[in-house]
Amino acid sequence: MLGIMKCSVLATVITFASFLSMEIVLGIPLDCANLKNDVVPNIISRQNWHARQPVERELLEVTPTPYVVIHHGGEPKYCYDEKTCSAIVRQYQNFHIDDRHWFDIGYSFVIGEDGNVYEGRGWDYVGAHAPGYNTQSIGICIIGDFSSKCFIVQSILKVRIECCGSYNVTKHSSSSSQSTMMEKLITVLLMLASCQVFGDVLEDHNIPVRPNIISRSNWGARAPKSQLQNLAVNPPPYVVIHHSATDGCTTQAICQARVRSFQNYHMDEKNWTDIGYNFVVGEDGNVYEGRGWDKHGAHSKPYNSKSIGICIIGNFVDHNPNTAAINATQDLIAYGTTIGKIKEQYTLLGHSQTAATSCPGKSLYKLIQTWPGWSSI
Asked: Is the pLDDT of residue 80 over 90?
């Protein structure tokens, strides 16, 4: 499905553009024989996809808006039913609020390949999707990654495509466009398939795979004994991998109990301020927040001030973690680099490379030597 958009989602995009009474620039072939311009799309309300409350809202300066900016999600996650699409929209909102520190999900609307439109910031509010256009545009994001089918600008401008006799490819310029059909300039900026038709006007917004991070409050963490120090070097240039050298866990309930036991041991027996690791990963596929991003750890003394310490629950002397734990760990590292919490050109180390220890276990240590960023120092 990568790079190929179903007719249902194209129908929704076109119907939505028609609903906005705007022309649309398309750089992909269409075969939507029975579309009608006057169909109101099925819009799933924020309440129905279980949106969080926005931190704040700002009304658009220009209404009706003269621009529509179309994005793709930028990650290979697709959905063909309302439940799955709603979950992905919630992921977008969590990423934008928690990691980008935006007021809300950035887009005005999100469209899934189930053919539904999901209400984001909606009609009347400033978005956070296209700098320079947020105050005067509607931002529409299509769920999925369509970067492998990218029609060059020349093709978009030369090929005339008709859909139901109503929509044609129209030539627009990044600097000036004129329309004989409308009283004022209306340009649909299309960024389907990661094609930036208008050069430097917009940036591509890739959303990384965000692992499921269980917050401290959700796993029942104790408060630190005192305020945690910030990292001396941030973003940190090192990631240090550990194992817990204990029994593993494959359910959230057991993994949470393990993490609480690690914190108790570190605070009560080691007399540390808090659990030593920045994050702990279980074989249930979840990531458990320890000290978290930006904080000085207590997991590898020479590197505590300049690394993210990740502990995988289990004893990996003679076997590897399961696929769920491996994927969660790798996703966490990739996610950290994307959001600026780990240096992009980071160095990956096993604990045994930083101290006289058998951690992270012979088998796991051999495995991480095949991962991106690993160095023998």
From this structure: no
Beta strand 137-142 with 117-119 is: unpaired
Task: Provide the CA 377 distance to its chain's centre, in angstroms.
Answer: 31
Cβ atoms of residues 220 and 233 within 8 Å: no
Distance between first and last Cα of the chain: 41
> What is the Cα–Cα distance from 242 to 301, expressed in whole angstroms?
13
Q: Give residue-wise pLDDT tens across range 252-299.
A: 999 999 999 999 999 999 999 999 999 999 999 999 999 999 999 999
Q: Which residues contact 153 (CB under 8 A, 6 or more apart)?
A: 195, 197
Nearest to 64 by CA among 173, 176, 185: 185
* Residue among 284, 322, 290, 328 nearest 309 (CA): 290
> pLDDT per residue over 101-120, tens digit each?
899 999 999 998 888 899 99
pLDDT of residue 219: 94
H, E, C per residue of the chain: CCCCCCHHHHHHHHHHHHHCCCCCCCCCCCCCCCCCCCCCCCEECCCCCCCCCCCCCCECCCCCCCEEEEEECCCCCCCCCHHHHHHHHHHHHHHHHHHCCCCCCCCCEEECCCCCEEECCCCCECCCCCCCCHHHEEEEEECCCCCCCCCCHHHHHHCCCCECCCECCCCCCCCCCCCCCCCCCCEEEECHHHCCCCCCCCCCCCCCCCCCEECHHHHCCCCCCCCCCECCCCCCCEEEEEECCCCCCCCHHHHHHHHHHHHHHHHHHCCCCCCCCCEEECCCCCEEECCCCCECCCCCCCCCCCEEEEEECCCCCCCCCCHHHHHHHHHHHHHHHHCCCCCCCCEEEEHHHCCCCCCCCHHHHHHHCCCCCECCC
Spatial distance between the Cα atoms of 155 and 175, rounded to a whole number of angstroms: 19
193 Rama sector, left if φ>0, alpha if ψ -120 to 50, beta otherwise? left
CA-based R_g, the chain, Å: 24
Which of these, 252, 236, 243, lies nearest to 336 by C-alpha position?
236
The encoded tokens of residue 12 equal 């929704």
Question: How many residues are recorded in the chain?
Answer: 377
